[in-house]
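Milestone M4 deliverable, item 7.
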Amino acid sequence: MPLDPQMKAMVDQMVAAGQPPVFAEIGAEAAKAVSDQSALMMGTGPTMAREEEFTVDGADGHRMRARLYVAGERASALLVFFHGGGWVVGSIEGYDPALRRFARASGCAILSVDYRLAPEFRFPTAPQDCYAALCWAAAHRSELGLPADLPLVVGGDSAGGNLTAVVSLMARDRGEPALAAQLLIYPATDCDFETPSYREFTTNLPLTSSTMQWFWEQYEPDPARRRHPHASPLRADDHAGLPPALLILAGYDPLLSDGQAYGRTLEAAGNRVTTLIWDGLTHGFFQFAEVLEPAGQANDEIAAALTGMLGVGC
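Output delivered:
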């Protein structure tokens, strides 16, 4: 399927402006600054009924910022969300417009978590931070102004999708917290750079194969350690007994093969998996929801699919 015309126009503008730059050339510090600047162009998103900042538990006594979005008077699920950015860039602010839209469309309360980033904090800091934040959210639903028995969902996109898959494994293995679903938006699930989509999507896209490899190098320089299941969840020995998965994929994405392989693995292990693919969109479309019409439509459709999976009127 060809690239969606609106998506193509946006990509062409980015390429003409030299965006995104080659992160390997400018380095991690400059990459973070570029990402922060780009976040200002993602729109504003709808007004929430309630929006609050919290400080939540991370790993090893670290405390992290988190932002809660509640679109209506009553929510019937709490989604703990981990942003993308290759474990190196990205922020709560960069995902603010898209999560506002998703909160309104789904009706679910969303807690967006500001976990620590590489290369200052390499693997396994991010999954440990995210698991701690998930446990904090499970134990503090009342402090968030939500029912203590509200269903708990974990989700994220790209690197955040990786962290979602990892903390779902951790929650299963450690016996808590109980999860109603996992939302995996074009997740990175393995450190194999020879998949069909890594070989295909090498240039002129918001995320290219070389940029993704650079992200992995910042996150975990040791190729052997990248194969740990808390870095590459596809490599876990056992995928049985995981929460139902809503798997979202993009057709123009180096991580397409990662997502497809993880979906097959989850299904083979007996898990419930719903897979939706946007063939004409690129990696990153979820974040573009307020500035690109087809991405906004996809955001709304993902929200409806999550609502249907949960079987509640959120």
